[in-house]
Amino acid sequence: MFSSKKDVSQEQALDMSRIPAHIAIIMDGNGRWAQKRHLPRVAGHKQGMQTVKTVTMAASDLGVKVLSLYAFSTENWKRPSSEVNYLMQLPIRFFSTFVPDLVKHNVRVMVMGDTTRLPEATQKAVNDAIKDTADCDGMVLNFALNYGSRDEITRAVKQIASEVQDGQLDPANITEQTISDHLMSAPLGELADPDLLIRTSGEERISNFMLWQIGYSELEFVDEHWPDFDGDSLKRAIIDFQGRHRRFGGLVNQ
Ligand code: FPP
To answer: Which pTM does this prediction carry?
Structure first.
């Protein structure tokens, strides 16, 4: 783990030929960021939205292929309704100001999660952003909205069971790929599994995010609260990732 705000140029150089293709981020610490400043929690979410813009552009410029962001979990409905309502407004505010930049940077928006439970205006903002960026073939900005991995896996199991019941699928032919193909990340194809998972704000847990897909991800827990995270923080996390030896259960130099 690292937490200092050192200038990236003072550290080991970033190897541009080994940028992780898929980076997933659990954006934590908005509330604590606000509390430290004696501001209401939602001020942290507002600043967190600005960070989403900054980090999206930084990731796209570095050549990341997929950036998955945990924006609202299936458990976040338990928060006070005023906070939930604010969080539901954020995609509207975000996309209404940011879609032209996304298009300019060739970034395509995708969403994982049950969006049918979101307020109609939020659904519309999300669906419009997906449509408006559909022709972009650069980085995929993959928002997890009303997403929970156990919910995702439960839905996949139900779907697979019903295909078996209908005689479309022989249980003997169910492979790991069958499971991956039924998850909400399936449209990402071979990029569905994150290479690097970052969680901000010092908490070291996964909180029901992409449980199947992170089986072999490198995990990076950073102390900064999400609103303080920026392009340099992202670079530091990638440099740390590049110092690791991924073996996928095998041996080095195999
Ligand atoms: C966790 O911090 C953060 C969230 C539950 C919301 C994340 C949302 C954003 C960063 C903005 C999303 C932007 C768009 C465009 C959808 P917390 O509130 O749990 O912080 P705490 O642990 O310090 O209380």
So the answer is: 0.94
How buried is residue 206: exposed, middle or buried, by Cβ count under 10 Å (0-12/13-18/19+)? middle
Mutate to test the pocket of ligand 1, among 77, 145, 226 (most ligand atoms within 8 A of CB): 226
Q: Over the stretch 94-143, which tens digit does the pLDDT of each residue have? A: 999 999 999 999 999 999 999 999 999 999 999 999 999 999 999 999 99
From first CA to last CA, the distance across the chain in angstroms is 28
Under 8 Å between Cβ of 93 and 50:
no
Annotated catalytic residue within 28, 193, 195, 240: 28
Q: In what order do the strands lie in the sheet with 196-199?
A: 108-112, 140-147, 66-73, 22-26, 196-199, 218-221
Report the nearest-CA residue for atom 15 of ligand 1: 91
Structure tokens at 51: 């960070």
Amino acid at 104: K
Instruction: Indicate the residue type of 151.
Output: D
151 is catalytic: no
The token duo for 154 is 């439960």
User: What does the alpha-carbon distance between residue 56 and residue 136 come to, in Å, rounded to a whole number?
Assistant: 14
